[in-house]
Amino acid sequence: MGRLKDKVAIITGGAGGIGIATAKLFLDQGAMVVIADISKEALEKASLEINHGNLSYCVVDVSKPKDNEKMVAHTLDVHNRIDIFFANAGIEGTSKPIAEYPDDIFDSVIDVNLKGVWYGCKYVIPKMKAGGSVMITSSVAGLKGFAGLGAYVSTKHAIIGIMRVAALEFASNKIRVNTIHPGPVNNDMMRRIEKDISPENPGEVLKGFETTIPFGRYVDSNEIAQIALFLASEDSKMITGCMHIVDGGMLTN
């Protein structure tokens, strides 16, 4: 029997690497999954890759309240319940010092990474079944500073506050709320960050990041999916309000 048998999960950022890996694992464990993302084309491509009868998708801009309400309505229409919410959507912004950071990009990062989590918690959690689980993707950047990534770092710190408040406010329904803090993940976002930092030598940026990781490599999306599965399952039924670091020892270095 799967660890998520008959559970219904929403995954935002569902067309990205972590979202796809998590959707596959949840489906393998018996869940019904709704992936949400801003691009219909990306969602269609992800759906073809995942290729499972218990998967559906919803085009959602997480920074818009109405889109979050639409996502909830879609899930309830299709499955009549919500047990698991993985607030995983996020963007990196750009790599610039604070004094030079473009205001419009700062606003975009705040809209997606911070408001997107806020609206998700506001509109999804009240509709969840008692005993459900919420996971929010933060980052090692939510626990330390990284020069040049001010907007990203700020939002990843801020959503820890949302997690802690939500863990308290929804505890009466035994709904668990936790954050996941990946180190650098071997995905498209890190390729963009590497190229943004050094357009001429992104490979050197990758090597530089790896030297800060005691295990000597980036995290794989499947490794994030495994901690998401643990937090979504009954194995974590007494764990709430906590930060879960998956970084190969980066923060100990």
Automatic annotation (TrEMBL):
InterPro entries: NAD(P)-bd_dom_sf, Sc_DH/Rdtase_CS, SDR_fam. The keyword Oxidoreductase applies. One of its GO terms (molecular function) is oxidoreductase activity. PROSITE patterns: ADH_SHORT. Keywords: Oxidoreductase. The keyword S-adenosyl-L-methionine does not apply. It holds the Pfam family adh_short_C2. CDD domains: SDR_c. Belongs to the short-chain dehydrogenases/reductases (SDR) family. This is SDR family oxidoreductase.
